[in-house]
Every structure is written in C-alpha cells, then in structure tokens.
Amino acid sequence: MLTLYKDKVRCLDSKQKGEYPLVGVTAVVESGEALSQRVTLTRFAAFGLLSLAMKKKSGGSSFLLIEGPEFAWTFEVKRGDQAKAQAFAAKVRSAAKESITAE
C-alpha cells in the first residue's frame, strides 16, 4: 500500500492514492487520542473551517500519519504492527532529510 523511494513516497490505497516528493514530508506514529486532538495545517488548507468539524479517528489504537505540503495520509496501525510502522516512519523522515540536503 505504501512505498518509499529515494525521492518520493507513493500510496496505492484507493482513498488516499497519490505520489509525492519527499521535500517537506514528515511521518509519525501517534495514539488515536493524540490524533483526535490534532488539526493539521494540511487538513485545514484542504477543508477550511470544515476541518474543525471533521470526524477524526480516536480510541486505543495507533495511527501512522504521513504529511507533506500537498497531502496528509492517515493509516490505522494494527496492534502487532506498531514497531513496523515506527520503523517505516523513521525511514520516511530520514529519506525526507536526505532529499533536502540533496537539493
């Protein structure tokens, strides 16, 4: 579903499909509670004031959040896959840093 390349990240999920350069991209794994309290600039830019009323995922689960200047993707992480999600988020952050220094 998610593929990380040297200079871009791609999502093949039907709802969040896209491919974006890594410049300005961040990735974190957050608890559902932390995510429910968060209103991102990307979401606000995309939906305006409606973003404040949008339902956000919450609860005792974790979510992988990948954001860039033009997009925001959120994926629920299964309980047994949290370490994998953390590792993927770290790889995205590292690749994003490398893409900045390569410019």
In short:
With 103 residues, this protein is α+β, with helices and mostly antiparallel strands. It is built from 3 helices and 6 strands; from the N terminus they run E-E-E-E-H-H-E-E-H.
Write the topology of this structure.
Blueprint (H helix, E strand, L loop, with lengths): L1 E3 L3 E4 L6 E4 L4 E6 H5 L4 H7 L14 E7 L2 E7 L4 H21 L1
Antiparallel strand pairs: 1-2, 2-3, 4-5, 5-6
What is the straight-line distance between the termini?
28 Å
Poorly predicted runs:
none
H-E order: EEEEHHEEH
Main structural class: alpha+beta
Strand content: 25-35%
Strand order of the largest sheet: 1-2-3
Task: Give a short account of the largest sheet.
Answer: 3 strands, antiparallel
Report the radius of gyration as a whole number of Å.
14 Å
Overall geometry comes to globular
- Mean pLDDT over all positions: 82
Helical region count? 3
Share of residues in helices: 25-40%
Number of strands: 6
